[in-house]
Amino acid sequence: MNQLFADRFKSARLLNGYSLQGLADALGNKVTKQALHKYEKGEVIPDSEKIALLSDVLHVRPDYFFREMKVELGAIEYRKLKRMPAKEEHKVIEQTREYLSRYLELEEILGIAQEFTNPLKDFPAVSHHEQVEEASMKLRQAWELGTGPIFNIPELFEDKHIKVVEIDADVSFDGMQTWVNDAIPIVAYNKNIADKLDRVRFTLLHELGHLLLKIDESLTETQKEKLCHQFAGAMLLPKSTLLEELGNHRSRLSVNELGNIKKQYGISMQALLMRANACGIVNSHYTSQFFNMMKQMGWRKEEPIAYEGVEQSNRFDQLLYRALAEELISVSKGAALKNMKISDFRSQSLVM
Q1: DSSP helix/strand/coil, 163
Q2: What is the pLDDT of residues 193-206, one digit of tens each?
Q3: How many distinct structural domains can be found in the chain?
Q4: How far apart are the first and last CA of the chain?
Q5: In this structure, what are the phi and psi dihedrals at residue 165, rounded to the nearest 5 degrees?
Q6: Would you tell me how many other CB atoms lie within 10 Å of the CB of residue 271?
Q7: Which of 44, 56, 60, 219 lies in disulfide reach of 64, CB 3.0 to 4.6 Å?
Q8: Integer CA distances (angstroms), 135 to 205, 213, 243, 307, 330, in order
Q9: Tell me: the pLDDT tens digits for 2-60?
Q10: Are 132 and 252 contained in the same domain?
Q11: Are residues 302 and 253 in the same domain?
Q12: DSSP annotation string for 199-265
């Protein structure tokens, strides 16, 4: 029990980005750094009063500290986190583990066994753009997506048994992917980019490329990233559809034209421009000119036309309220799985 508390306490501390001294300060020194160190080493379990203090400051319920951690994350490529301070890296990892521990426990309560199948598992290792185009079409066909816009990518991933995790992280982090317990694929993205839904969509599909594609190991990291960029673009807007929208060859493109396609397909104007270049619709010289114009107009960070859609999965909440309705869990357990106070959870849980 001591070690379980110690491990969970450390996870909660890292999840919130605190050092031991920082946590002691946040607690108003009602618990000393030395005492916190003993908690983390498993030497002491605090009393209920101190657990309540820790719960408030660390934004978890008291039972969090005694819930078994059933989540083992696979390798996370360092390049995803290398621009972040160490404490931000820990926050990303622990937020992912904490959310998934609740999610997997909920599925276990409901008796849901999900097995992911990678439609691209037999596809050869990709090393160039044409293979990425082919792989994206193979995946669209396997998932019966046709060649039109994809709506609500997080919901699509969850339907295909890929867990989607929303992370509160430094803006230098976009997303990552890995496997949980060697069996469950996950994709995480930063909720602080959610004001730009086209960026969320591109990030999720980029990480999907890393998750599903076999990529030629002889390529550099930059080349691998480019292939996953191209995969995301191809998933958002297939080549055949792009040619229908823009034509086979163009000498010029209109900002409003690109903006209208963006609003329909949820792909940024910049990604759309790169897609047009990769598909041979516009040449590299014109692409560079267009990007320079966007930079001068201040549109590289904030494009003049926004994509408006819904990019959120409600599957966790749906399963939670199903478990409540079927009386498989109590209101107290529901609050624990939702990581909410019982009073707050009860006020929003209406079960007939």
Answers
A1: strand
A2: 888 999 999 999 99
A3: 3
A4: 38
A5: -120, 130
A6: 22
A7: 60
A8: 13, 8, 18, 26, 45
A9: 788 888 888 788 878 888 898 889 999 888 899 888 888 888 888 888 888 898 888 88
A10: yes
A11: yes
A12: HHHHHHHHHHHHHH--B-TTS-HHHHHHHHHHHHHHHHS-HHHHHHHH-S--S---HHHHHHHHHHH
Distance between CA 256 and CA 305 in Å, rounded?
8
Q: Are residues 61 and 171 in the same domain?
A: no
Q: Are 180 and 100 in contact (CB under 8 A)?
A: yes
Q: Using CB atoms within 10 A of its CB, is residue 349 exposed (0-12), middle (13-18) or buried (19+)?
A: middle
- Whether residues 55 and 99 fall in one domain: no
3-state secondary structure 17-34: CCCHHHHHHHCCCCCCHH
Tokens (6 digits) for 253: 């493109």
Q: Which domain-ending residue is among 69, 90, 108?
A: 69
Angle at 107 between CA 105 and CA 108, to 5 degrees: 60
184-190 and 163-167 as β-strands: parallel, antiparallel, unpaired?
parallel
What global pTM score does this model have?
0.83
Say whether both 167 and 217 belong to one domain: yes
Contact (Cβ atoms closer than 8 angstroms) between residue 189 and residue 203: yes
Give the DSSP H or E segment for 168: none
Domain region containing 335: 322-348
Least trusted range by pLDDT, from 84-93, 213-222, 232-241: 84-93
Do 197 and 263 touch, CB atoms closer than 8 A? no
Residue from 125, 139, 8 nearest 69 by CA:
8
Q: What are the pLDDT digits (tens) for 57-72?
A: 888 888 778 877 667 7
Strands of the chain, DSSP E: 163-167, 175-180, 184-190
Question: Domain check: are 274 and 140 in the same one?
Answer: yes
